[in-house]
Every structure is written in C-alpha cells, then in structure tokens.
Amino acid sequence: MTLLRPTVAVPAGEAASEAPGAAAHSARDATCAVCEARCLSVGYRGGLVLKDVDFSVPPGVIMAIVGPNGAGKSTLMKGMLGLIAPTAGSVRFFGSPLCAVRRRIGYTPQHTTVDWDFPTTVFDVVLMGTYGGLGWFRRPGRAERERSWAALERTSLTHLADRQIGELSGGERQRAFLARALAQDADLYFLDEPLQGVDALSKHTIMGVMRDLRERGKTLVIVHHDPSTVRLLCDWVTLVNKGIVASGPVESTFSEANVRRTYAHVPTAAWFGATS
User: Are 214 and 206 in contact (CB under 8 A)?
Assistant: First the structure.
C-alpha cells in the first residue's frame, strides 16, 4: 500500500461544449515533447509487462493511456516515473532526466493503492503537495497554506478540510489527491485512473479541473478506463496492449482499426460518439 506522501514521484529502489482541438496539436513532434519514452521495457519479478515502448507527449494536452485490463497502462506510468525500475530504455521530461525536473511533475496514484488509515486530515494531505519545493529544513508557510486552501476550493472540498482522509468517499478521496497535485503547481501531471469509481459530482469536478489545467498550458497524462469519453476529454491518446499500439492526436489515432488492434474485439459506436 502507498502511504500518503508528496505528489512528486520517487524513483523505485462535466462536459465541455466542444471536443478538444486535437488538430491544433498534430504538428507538434518529439523536439518539443514534454515527455518521451524510448525503447522502454518494464516488468515485475523478471517478467516483462511492456517491451520497447516508444512515444512522446506534446505540451498542453490531456493524453489518455487506454487499453484492456492487464494491458500495462499503470505499469507504463509507473515505469516512466521510476516507481518501477525499467529493465531497458529511457524517459526524458522537458528534455531532461527525471531527477533534474522532479519538482515540475505531479503524480496521483490509484486510490486503491493508498493506505487510507494513515492518520492525517484532508488539508494536511493537500499541503503535502507543497513539500517538494520547500527543501529539507523549511516548513510550509502562509503562501503554501493559501495555495493548498485554493486547491481545496477548486475541488469543492473545503468543508472536509479537517476530516480524516480515510473517512472520505471514493470520489472525495480522488478529489483530495487531485487537490494535492494542484497545490504542487506542477507543469506535467500523471493521474492514474482519476475517474475510476467516482460519483457524478466528483467526475464533473475532476474533469473540469483537468480542462482548466490544460487551458493554463499544463500537460496531463491519465490512465483512462472509459473509451467512450476519450474524445470528450482528451486531445491525445496512447493505446496500449503489452506495448504501444498507436499514439497521437485523438482524431486520427483513436480509430476503429486501432481500437480493434488494442482490444481484440469490435468496439461499439459509443466509443467514438459524443464530443459535447
């Protein structure tokens, strides 16, 4: 289980009125990539889950990592962030290794991997998002506390600020961890299934925050379980099944042919439907 800790990754040992403008990003290439993986292989206990992964993410997009259960979506994210040691390959962020730009990257894990019995309040969890920029001997001050409170306001959680984190519902917990990432004020966010198992209010709030971050020029990479909302929420998509099937702008990449190759069955029309 993951303890409640700052959002910066540590190396291992609702609806909008219009669909996202993917076409505006299609001309971007790896030279301006916010992050890129090259020949990345990741596995557990000697067995490979992903092999020779190559893809890049341009700035200012919401990119979904989609694929069937067991395809390696969360493993890919953890391998990129060093939470699982890759067996081969490399990952660069803003053209640099992770260790050089760690403070610019926020990470929200799956809520099922967190120890919710950890004795801390919602506000303290959010305040942890500011720790990465403080240094070893500084404590959060007024500026950090104000930033944390603003993050709680944006995620509609101020009324729960003093509540023990384990007392929250699943959707409220996801919003609390998103608020923690907001308090960090990163440039690149990795969110592992942020919409999984949340109530309608939390889904609406989380999607609104993600869109706002994109409008501010931030980049988001999300493990996403619902193909039917990919076109609604995302500009960019990476389809995964033990490797990269396809990666690129949603409009050209999230096609019926690529979905068939990824999921090994015929997708329904709903997967390519509503964009508003």
Answer: no
**Closest listed residue to residue 50, CA positions, set 14, 77, 21:** 77
pLDDT (average), residues 29-43: 82
In the chain, the N- to C-terminal Cα span, in Å, equals 38
Token pair of 96, please?
A: 């640099």
Judged on CB neighbours under 10 Å (0-12, 13-18, 19+), 119 is: exposed
| Cα–Cα dist 275/160, whole Å | 33
- The helix or strand, by DSSP H or E, that contains position 43, with its residue range, turns out to be strand 35-44
Phi, psi (deg, nearest 5) at residue 2: -90, 130
Domains of the chain: 32-266 (3.40.50.300)
Q: What's the chain's Rg over C-alpha atoms?
A: 18
Which residues on neighbouring strands pair with residue 108, listed in sequence order? Answer: 191
CA neighbor of 209 nearest in space, from 225, 197, 191: 191
For residue 128, give every residue at least 6 positions away whose Cβ sits within 8 Å of its Cβ, in sequence order, or none.
4, 5, 6, 7, 180, 183
**Angle, helices 200-215/170-184, rounded to nearest 10 degrees:** 20
Dump pLDDT digits (tens) for 198-254.
Answer: 888 888 999 999 999 999 999 999 999 888 889 999 999 999 999 999 999 999 999
Side by side, the strands of the sheet bearing 219-223 are: 105-108, 188-192, 219-223, 62-66, 236-240, 244-249
What is the C-alpha to C-alpha distance for residues 219 and 191, in angstroms, rounded to an integer? 11
Helices (H), 105-141: 122-127
Specify whether the CB–CB gap between 88 and 40 falls below 8 A.
Answer: yes
What is the model's pTM?
0.80
